[in-house]
TrEMBL record:
Record key words, sorted: DNA-binding, Transcription, Transcription regulation
Name under which the protein is recorded: LysR family transcriptional regulator
PROSITE patterns: HTH_LYSR
SUPFAM superfamilies: Periplasmic binding protein-like II, Winged helix' DNA-binding domain
GO biological process: DNA-templated transcription
Taxonomic source organism: Chromobacterium paludis
Residues in HTH lysR-type domain copies: 1-59
InterPro entries registered for this protein in UniProt: LysR-type_TF_proteobact-type, LysR_HTH_N, LysR_subst-bd, WH-like_DNA-bd_sf, WH_DNA-bd_sf
Protein family: Belongs to the LysR transcriptional regulatory family.
Length: 294
């Protein structure tokens, strides 16, 4: 038998004073209520109630079990109320993962606006350039750059992730300005060590059939490459989001715009759910409204 229902019926018998009243309250027959109480007594190995022709009385075992049942049922009701509340209003904590550069420069400023709109929502943002498993790692949503595999997850397309080549005016005055990809052979191309085979300078070289010397400087952090470019150490090939402000202020000069590989697709992905929690629903709507591809 359903143990939880048996506990509810036992508490109802005690609170309402009779099997008949408990049966009416739960729309069951009186014999069925008796079977549930008997099943509990058999499981516990003792009597819970002593019944006479006029009244019923809890045994010592019944008294202890009654108190525990009331506590358990109250906690269950509170858990269900909390779950219902979560489904009514955006509240709780969202766990989100994004790449370091995008998350720092594009996403973080938007999250300040998002949390101001929804004061009962918190965000736990983890930045990493490593690929994470949304479900296994317990994220509500993940921003992913590149083409999506068929994973059964929902993917909302965002504005493409564009790259940019830039160098400082001082470097270009000293070394000259490259006009075509072939000119890169005589320049210092700063390298990003986390690039995959289809990324970065190698992708540019294969796309245009040119040779690009190995980088004299390698780093796993885009901000460090930006700083070297600003200091005149070479050409940086990094996300547009990382270099755009320096270009706008004249600290860096954009190069070879017409020769760059095609921008990568970008998506916000999250688990498929016919009834997603309000916290996820409003987050997806907010992000697509700010970063969605027109």
């Amino acid at each position: 038998m359903d143990r939880l229902l048996s506990m509810e019926l036992f508490v109802a018998v005690v609170d309402l004073g009779s099997f008949t009243a408990a049966a009416e309250a739960h729309r069951l027959s009186q014999p069925m209520v008796g079977k549930h109480i008997a099943a509990l007594e058999q499981r516990l190995g003792g009597r819970l109630l002593v019944r006479t022709t006029r009244r019923q009385q809890l045994t010592e075992l019944g008294q202890h079990y009654y108190q525990r049942c009331r506590t358990i049922l109250a906690e269950l009701a509170a858990a269900e109320d909390a779950a219902a509340l979560l489904r009514e209003q955006p509240r709780g904590v969202l766990r989100v993962n994004a790449s370091v550069t995008f998350g720092t420069l594009r996403l973080a400023p938007l999250l300040a606006e998002f949390m101001a709109l929804y004061p009962e929502l918190g965000v736990e943002l983890e930045l990493s350039d490593q690929l994470v498993d949304l479900v296994a790692d317990g994220y509500d949503a993940v921003f992913r750059i590149g083409h999506l595999p068929d994973s059964g997850l929902v993917g909302r397309r965002l504005k493409p992730y564009r790259m940019m080549i830039a160098a400082s005016p001082a470097y270009l005055a000293r070394r000259g300005k490259p006009e075509t990809p072939a000119d890169l052979a005589r320049h210092d191309c700063l390298g990003f060590s986390r690039w995959q085979r289809d990324d970065g300078w190698d992708a540019l070289a294969r796309l245009h059939g040119v040779e690009i010397p190995s980088s004299r400087f390698l780093c796993n952090q885009g901000q460090a490459l930006r700083q070297l470019a600003l200091a005149g150490a070479g050409l940086a090939l990094q996300a547009e989001a990382l270099l755009a402000a320096d270009v706008a202020d004249g600290r860096l000069v954009p190069l070879l715009d017409g020769y760059l590989p095609e921008a990568k697709p970008m998506h916000l992905i999250y688990p498929a759910d016919r009834q997603p929690l309000p916290k996820l629903r409003v987050f997806v709507d907010f992000i697509v409204g700010r970063l969605g591809e027109l």
